[in-house]
Design a protein that fits this description.
six-stranded mixed sheet; 12 strands; transport; binds adenosine-5'-triphosphate
C-alpha cells in the first residue's frame, strides 16, 4: 500500500440478492487512520458490506480493493470483530487459541522464537481487553460479553491495517464499551488502521467518527456526522420526517417509525 492508496476502495459497487438491491453505485474510499461509522436499519446491508471487504461475498457490480489489492478471503491485513453470536457451552476452543487464529498466516508460528513471540502477542491482546484469565478457558463457558472481548483481542492481535467491527459493543458493560472503543480508536490513530464500525447506536463512538455511511433501503449517504446526521438529510434518506437533535453532545434521532428506534435507546447514558 502506498501513502496515497486508500485502505478500502469501492468503485461503483452494487450488491443484490435476487431482485433485491441492498446498495448500488457505492463509491467509497476509506483512508488509513479513518474511522467510518456504518449505520442503517436491520437488513440494509451493513454486514453484507463487511462480507464483501472480507472476500466472502461477491459484488454484483463494481470493484473492491483492500490496501490496493482485490478483496480476498483470509487477508491478514484485516481484523474482524463479527456480529455477536453467543457460543454454545459445548464449544471447547480456548481463549488463547481463538486469539491465536488472528495471527495465522503471520510468521509468528515458525520456530521456538516465533512461538514465544506469538504467545506474548496473544497474552498482550487478551490483557488489553481484561481477558487474560480466559486464555485457558473453553469459550463456551464464558458469558456473551466475555466472549466478545476475546473476539476483540483476536481482531487486534495481528495489528490490522483495516479493522471491520460489526456492532462490537453490543453485549459489553459500560467500562468495557469504553475500553474496546479506545483500543479500536488507538488502532486507527497510532497504527493507521482504517476502521469500519457497524453500529445501531452512534453516540458511544461519536467523538471518534470521521465519516458516516448511512444505508437505508437501497439508498445511502456518506459524509461527516454533521453532514449526514441532520433532519434534512435523514428525512430525505428515510423518505419520512426525521428529527435530529444534539442534546449535550449526543445525537437523538426521532421519527423513523421504529426502524431506527435504537437511536433513542441510549446505551452510554
Ligand atoms: N447470502 C444471502 N442471500 C440472500 N439474501 C441475503 C444473503 N445475505 C444477506 N441477505 C439478506 O440481505 C439483507 C441484508 O443483510 P445484512 O446482514 O447485510 O443486513 P444488516 O444491515 O447487517 O442488518 P442488521 O442490522 O439486522 O444486522 C437481509 O435482508 C438478508 O436477509
Amino acid at each position: 500500500m502506498t501513502a496515497t492508496e486508500p485502505a478500502v476502495g469501492l468503485r461503483g459497487a452494487a450488491l443484490s440478492y435476487g431482485p433485491r438491491t441492498l446498495w448500488d453505485g457505492l463509491d467509497l474510499d476509506v483512508a488509513p487512520g479513518e474511522f467510518l461509522a456504518v449505520l442503517g436499519p436491520n437488513g440494509s446491508g451493513k454486514t453484507s458490506l463487511l462480507r464483501v471487504l472480507l472476500g466472502m461475498q461477491e459484488l454484483t457490480a463494481g470493484s473492491v480493493r483492500i490496501a490496493g489489492e482485490p478483496a480476498r478471503r483470509g487477508n491478514d491485513r484485516i481484523g474482524y470483530i463479527p456480529q455477536q453470536r453467543t457460543l454454545e457451552g459445548t464449544v471447547t476452543v480456548r481463549g488463547s487459541d481463538l486469539v491465536g487464529f488472528g495471527l495465522d498466516g503471520h510468521r509468528w508460528g515458525v520456530g521456538w522464537r516465533g512461538r514465544r513471540e506469538r504467545k506474548q502477542r496473544v497474552d498482550r491482546a487478551l490483557r488489553a481487553v481484561d481477558a487474560a484469565e480466559y486464555a485457558r478457558m473453553p469459550l463456551g463457558l464464558l458469558s456473551g460479553g466475555e466472549q466478545q472481548r476475546v473476539r476483540v483481542a483476536q481482531a487486534l492481535v495481528g495489528d490490522p491495517a483495516v479493522l471491520l467491527c460489526d456492532e462490537p459493543l453490543l453485549s459489553l458493560d459500560l467500562a468495557h464499551q469504553r475500553k474496546v472503543s479506545s483500543l479500536i480508536a488507538r488502532q486507527a490513530e497510532e497504527a493507521g488502521a482504517a476502521v469500519l464500525f457497524v453500529t445501531h447506536e452512534i453516540n458511544p463512538v461519536l467523538p471518534l467518527v470521521d465519516r458516516v455511511l448511512y444505508l437505508v433501503d437501497g439508498r445511502f449517504r456518506i459524509g461527516t456526522p454533521d453532514e449526514v446526521m441532520n433532519s434534512a438529510t435523514l428525512s430525505e434518506l428515510f423518505r419520512t420526517d426525521v428529527e435530529v437533535a444534539r442534546v449535550g453532545g449526543r445525537l437523538v434521532v426521532a421519527g423513523t417509525d421504529g426502524a431506527e428506534s435504537h437511536h433513542v435507546h441510549e446505551v452510554d447514558a
